[in-house]
Amino acid sequence: MRRFAFVAVLLVGLASFEARAEPTGSALPGLAAYDELMTALIKKWDVPGAGLAVAHKDKLVLVRGYGLANKERAVVVEPTSLFRLASLSKTITAVAVLQLVQDGRVKLDDKVLPILGDAGPRSDRITDARVHDITVRHLLQHSGGFDRDRSGDVVFLPGAADAAHRQGGPLPPDCPTILRDTLERKLDFAPGERFAYSNIGYCILGRVVERVTGSPYETHVRQHVLAPVGATRMKIGRTLQPAEAEVTYYDYRGAKQVKAMPGLGLTLAPQPYGAFAIETMGSYGGWIGTPIDYLRFILAIDGRRGAALLNTATLADMNARAELKLTTAEGDESNGNGVYYGLGIRIRPVTNGANLFHTGSIPGTSTLAVRTGDGFAWVVMFNSRPQDRNGFRGDVDRGLWVAKGKVKRWPDGDLFGQNQ
User: Fold this and answer.
1) Strand, helix or coil at 70?
2) What does each C-alpha distance from 249 to 138, 184, 274 come to in angstroms?
3) Which one of 33, 141, 173, 299 has the minimum C-beta count within 10 Å?
4) 296-322 per-position pLDDT tens digit
5) Do residues 325 and 336 make contact, with C-beta atoms less than 8 angstroms apart?
6) What is the dihedral of CA 181, 182, 185, 190, to 10 degrees?
7) Nearest of 179, 183, 351, 377 to residue 280 by alpha carbon
């Protein structure tokens, strides 16, 4: 009964509270450009709320909440508010896999099917022999043979429900069911041939982590990736059972309700609470967390702050450019601007090294994480995704770079110690 009541609250008075709260949290002096930007963004794009964390020389200089975590109850976003990470989850999964590589427990060029074993496709139902060629590296760099522009994004409706029906799997359809069904069907291209952004590839990588370690994916990642860097609040979200301090997610104004994912107990629902089941999306999009915790994570990948999660050789693999044919499909930004996808992270070479970044986008959620080659990093999370998602993403990305450029003198100090 609770899930019906929860969704019902979202459908009542979504436009009833439009006041914008003052920023919460803290910032060192001289960073007003960020407050001005974020206030303007949530107003222009009609987004209820956002969280932002900014680091300079690997020290926290700003951690803020903007706007509303819940419009109906006028709850403001705090630095401790939890957001869905969406595809920022992929970098977490990539680091977990790469740790297993550097520990010698798996190799990048190991074939995936033997690792999956009985968690993979049934041999008598495989229809494309090329699935035997898929490697861990292929999945990390989105070259496993899955193209959502050709075959649809199988982790969402209707593909996920179709997979559960064919496999007799649980509802909502879970990742093991979807991966088994996908690997029993024809691939869209030969593994390693080209780049095509793929959620199902990272679904499979989550199962690789489980098979190699013998632990549930979430348990292993929290113990070996997140806890060591102090990102202790991060966890896999639940669609209709929000965590304590988790924001409420909103579709864009005027969006229609959609047919809900089977197994949620709903018929129609707002997209953020029915178009998918976040608890089944762990390794490719299911994590929730705060901007400051994700900032801790990206600063620790190579040890810019704290002990490094990955060693020098593994980082070289992560940042290497693959010789792949490229696609213009949404999600691939390798379109002549020098950007390419490494292993779990997008990379833009610059004169002082490389800017690393990833985006996240699902109904009700927009996220961006950036780490620059000259010692800056920022993570921003919103509890809505405007209808013009690409225009919004462009405004956010450009705006944060402009705000950085407006700072005349970067302050000394570190707010990490005040924000545990």
Assistant:
1) strand
2) 33, 35, 12
3) 33
4) 999 999 998 988 999 999 999 999 998
5) no
6) -160
7) 179
Between strands 235-236 and 59-70, the pairing is unpaired
Query: H helices within 122-158, ranges in order?
Result: 136-140, 148-151
> What's the pLDDT at 71?
97
| 3-class DSSP state of 359 | strand
Buried b (16+ CB within 10 A) or exposed e, 371-408: bbeeebbbbbbbbbbbeeeeebbebbeebbeebbeebe
Q: What is the pLDDT of residue 269?
A: 95
Residue type, 348: R
Amino acid residing at 180: R
Contacts of 123 (CB under 8 A, 6+ apart): none
Q: If you write DSSP's letter for every residue of 335-346 in order, what string do you get?
A: SSSS-EE-SSSE
* DSSP 8-state class, residue 362: E
Helix (H, G, I), strand (E, B) or coil at 392: helix
For residue 40, give the nearest of 66, 14, 75 by alpha carbon.
66
Q: pLDDT by residue (tens digit) across 38-51?
A: 999 999 999 999 99
Residue 91: name the closest of 347, 323, 328, 272 by CA.
347
Q: What is the mean pLDDT of each run of 10 residues along the chain (420 residues)?
A: 47 46 94 98 98 97 98 97 99 99 98 97 96 98 96 91 91 94 97 97 98 98 97 96 98 95 93 96 98 98 93 96 67 62 96 91 98 96 98 98 97 88
- According to the model, what pLDDT value does residue 145 have? 98
Domain 91-219, architecture per CATH:
3-Layer(aba) Sandwich (3.40)
